[in-house]
Amino acid sequence: MKNYKKLALLFLLSTVSAFAQGNKPLDGLNIMLDPGHGGADSGAVGRLGLKESDTNLRVAKYLKMLLEHDGAIVKLTRDNPEVFKSLAQRVAMSNEENPDLFISIHHNASLNPNPMNHSEIYYNALDSGISKQVSNCISNKLKEEQYAGDSTVIPAGFYVLRNNNVPAILTEGSYISIPESEKQLRSGKGLTKEAEILWKSLRKAYSKGSLKIDFYSNEDEKLIVNSPYFNILFTANKTIKSVNARINNAKLDNVGLKNIMAFPLTYSIYNTKPLKSGEYELSVLAKGYEGLASPRKNVKLYVVLPVSKIELSSVVPQIPIGYKGQFPLDIKIYDSQNNINTRSVKAKIEYGNKTTVVETNPSGITTALLELDGKDVGEIKIKVTIEDEANSEIAIPVVMPLQHCVIGQLTGVNNEPLAKAKISYDGKTITQTNDNGYFYFEYELSVDKLDVEVEPCYGHKNLTYTIKNHDSMVVYPLLNTEASYPALYNKKIAIMAKDSLDNMVRSLAKPLVYAGAKLVRLNMPVKMTHPEYEAVLEANLIKDLNMVISLKSENIPSIQIRHYHNSKNGKKLAEAVRKTFKDNYPKIPIKTCAGSDYELGHTGATAIVIALPTKPNENTREALIDQLSKALKNNN
User: Fold this and answer.
1) Distance (Å, rounded) from C-alpha 226 to C-alpha 274?
2) How far does the chain reach from its first CA to its final CA, in angstroms?
3) What is the DSSP string of 543-559?
4) How far is 602 from 624, CA to CA, in rounded Å?
5) CA 399 to CA 321: how far, in whole Å?
6) How far apart are CA 328 and CA 365, in angstroms?
7) What is the pLDDT of residues 561-609, one digit of tens each?
8) Which residues fall within 8 angstroms of residue 423, CB to CB, at 6 or more apart?
């Protein structure tokens, strides 16, 4: 072992000497190397017993020596084979250190008994700048050196990539599960060759230097603009040719770039389509000449548009004489662009001899509850003022009720107000709840007992409320109902499928929406060679996504439900679907298995692939969708 280490070191030193070009070509470049797995997590294991975790660490250590010789500042997420670091810990180290580049080093394995050796270089799909540039350099060099056969560059959503604040890539240098490749990786020469290829690739990627940009505003502070159009200044260390931008993780096409001629290397970025009031995160990537691209730079943008109009209304058209209690007043706010206001503001409400202040809902529609003492006569005049500029008034009559009056509110899970719920009695729908769950109706004095049927829109159970107490002319019921299917309520589910499977998508969507799930159909561009890349990128941009369901039609003999090999939730869900289906359709073959589908390993959400035979048995698709929706409703 000592001789092995000496030979490896001598090889490294001779390599460094042979390829030294200039004095410290990577001087000052800050790089974090992440040797995958470690400790009890060995990663893949070759047929001869070589652990991926050990191989990753050795390559990382050799690469560290080469990079430091070129002047780079290099840190490892782990430097001991016995140390285990979780994915979250690795990302936390990177985000705290804030390096120029994060490289996670891995070696692949395949369940296929006769796989072709090749390398795969993954870059953060959210960053098409320096991450992609470095990945291309590595892939080209691997092919040039004929290291592991072919090499491909793939946009990715692995945890250590999508959660990283810095440019990040992940390398799968070769297949440790192939005996010839494993033999090469066991040798010092094989390991140092891979490290050398990565080193040469980084030299080429940064041969023209690096492009960096900085906003004039502090990243930790909000940049406040009082216009629907922003104009943000930033500086660069090299000439900028173009920029691409995202806002709240959505692509921003309507963005312009202007060079501030009076100041060298100073630019402004601006939008050409107006923004609504609200808080945004603007992410900018600049591109320079000679293929240079900057890391993404983020700034918090707070658009504060003045309130221009206030609309006042009430679900209750009149106030019964002597009514004591809370009276709902709806306040709808518009901004200077005549859009619904999407920021919280303080609204001053004056009525009778009382004044109160409420914080408005960012949805733009707020229900304020006014405390009435039962002494009002004639009418109540209400005035609402916002930011000492916009104001509105309404007068609501106070009358003697001729019938029983019901002023109520319906809430659901976590006391969330339920809008558009149907309120019925005697088989007739008489009203529905407003945006904040309030409703009002009257019924005859001669009725001693009234059964009111409440039918929420989606996701909640129907309920019946019986009004018996006639001590008062006004009844104020506060109704609450439960989720129909707690496992699905408010869950965000993204569906991937080609257009040819539209009927299946619609059949699946209907029961899930009625169960309270929030569905998104992911885009699968027909003209793209790999439409799944675009779909998964879109999925990773959805905040708090819970699940991805991919529907496919394939030339296979039976239904397959595939999951990511180390996803407990994915496997559990796949098994639940298989069992439910098998219990109801025992004659139709179906199986679950680990899959290599791109979408299974590149999102943070639980993901499964439902693959059907191209020519399924009669009613197979309908049966599968029916059982899939049942399994999802009951999945905990």
Assistant:
1) 12
2) 51
3) TT--EEEEEEEES-SSE
4) 25
5) 5
6) 12
7) 999 988 899 999 999 999 999 999 898 899 999 998 999 999 989 999 9
8) 429, 430, 431, 432, 433, 439, 441, 452, 453, 454
Residue 564 is classified by DSSP as -
What is the Cα–Cα distance from 121 to 87, expressed in whole angstroms? 18
For residue 470, the model assigns a pLDDT of 65
Element of type H or E holding 524 = none
Closest among 312, 321, 313 to 405, alpha carbons compared: 321
Q: Phi and psi dihedrals of 545, rounded to 5?
A: -70, 135
SS (H, E, C) 407-456: EEEEECHHHCECCCCEEEECCEEEEECCCCCEEEEEECCCCCCEEEEEEC
Contact between 465 and 443 under an 8 Å Cβ cutoff? The reply is no
- Is residue 165 classed exposed, middle or buried when 0-12, 13-18 and 19+ CB atoms within 10 A define those classes? middle
Tens of pLDDT, residues 519-530:
999 999 888 899
Specify whether the CB–CB gap between 239 and 265 falls below 8 A.
Answer: yes
For the CA atoms of 452, 455, 460, 462, the dihedral, rounded to the nearest 10 degrees, stands at: 50
One-character DSSP codes across 490-509: T-EEEEE--GGGHHHHHHHH
How many Å apart are CA 473 and CA 367, to the nearest integer? 23
Structure confidence at residue 221 as a pLDDT band (50, 70, 90): low
Q: What is the strand order of the sheet 231-236 is part of?
A: 213-215, 231-236, 266-271, 255-259
Tokens of 404: 């029983």
Dihedral angle computed from the Cα positions of residues 74, 79, 85 and 91, in that order, rounded to the nearest 10 degrees:
0
Q: Rounding to the nearest 10 degrees, give the CA dihedral for residues 314, 316, 321, 326.
A: -70
Distance (Å, rounded) from C-alpha 250 to C-alpha 157?
A: 16
Q: Are 562 and 593 in contact (CB under 8 A)?
A: yes
CA within 13 Å, CB half, 295: 20
d(CA 60, CA 78): 10
Q: 3-class SS at 293?
A: strand
Phi and psi at 617, nearest 5°, equal -65, 160
d(CA 404, CA 440): 11
Amino acid at position 283, single letter? S
Which residues lie across from 590 on neighbouring strands? 559
Amino acid identity for residue 219 in this structure: E
